[in-house]
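Escalated from tier 1: zinc ion holo job.
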Amino acid sequence: MKTRPVLFALLLLSTPAFADLAKAPNVQVTYTGIDAKYADAIAQTLSAALKIYSDDFGFDMPQTVVGSVTCAPGSPTRLFTDGKDHFTLNLPSQDKLLKPASSGTFNLYGMCHELGHMAMYRTLKDRDWMSTAAAEGFAHYAGSVVVDRVYAAKGPSLWPDPYDYRQDGSARLNKQLASPNPDDVTKAAGQWQKIESIIGQKAFPKLFKAWQDANIDPTKPNDTILLTLIKLDDSKVAPLADWWKSASPLFIEKRQASSIASKTIPANRLTGKPTKIALDDDSADDKRSIAGSGHARTFQTPDDKEWYIVAVAVHGGRYGPLRAPDTLFDISLCDPELKPISVWKKPYAAFPRGDSNWIRFEIPPTRVPKKFSLCLNFRPTATNGVYVSSDTSTQGNSVTGTPGRTATPLKDSDWMIRVELDQPK
Ligand SMILES: [Zn+2]
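Tier 2 regenerated the structure:
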């Protein structure tokens, strides 16, 4: 349930070709390796929880949640969502579906938790400013509330191994909050609980939409977030400001901006004959889509004079739906420490689905330091993303990371990213 970089190349292959289907209102679950009674219980749980997210919170939830459960020896126990409408559960053996006291796995709560991610992510799409603790904390808080209500609607017999699963809901969260050293996710869940008591449950969709519409700059998010918050209800300015003061250290993802200011120039003041910097051999050796991280490559200007970046080319191919989604990704100009100078949004749709090719993006002419990095952040999911090619003819100039955060060097190759630089006339 935690977010960490995931390589999707492997993941997509793991969906089995043969599978049975369990249905419940607005839910379809394909499954292999488990009994029908468990698949039905999973579908029923998702369906009940989905209704609570829609009716009680007012979230825009999917018309149909599509689940996939794969039980196979040796598989790690994993539960995750694409943040839109897909839910995946992998497990090594069916006894992992027994009640938590026997299996150590909180499956019922886990499903309510994953739908909590969907509830937030479907509306709050751009949340680079938000910490993992805040995102996980929301799913923990909302999932716990929803577990209680699923119990009220369905009772103990919902699960094939019946038990009082209210103990997995708010009771468990409150116990964790009362413990001497709650972790950051628990503390964040407590903050979501607190704001619920100020604005009410039904205000969450409005809050997430307001944050999405506010175009929050991840390098300086604080003021915009607070402003959006207090606009939500002007009769609660003081409690909301107090709340944000206590929540913000936990909710904001610490991110450093570059000390280099972004400086643009009108295109007609450039020579119009850009220098292309292509350091690869034009032949891809591998390709990757990385959830929770990005692809960055370092470049150098040809000399010490004034240079402006005017275009970026990426060797990549899109996977996911046949029709291009309206998803956007970021191209960031960064200093050599990967701290952002400028960020531009570009459409996924520019990449054709399937085979990888060079795709060129024009950039508003922006001054680059002598050494700089270009970082691509696609925020992919298992069902929607872009593979970026890598090339082994050079190495040591690329990292996996996102602007302003820690990066990991790419081993034995470089990302296939090219830039075009121009000079003033
Ligand atoms: Zn989670």
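Residues 173 and 179 are 10 Å apart (CA to CA).
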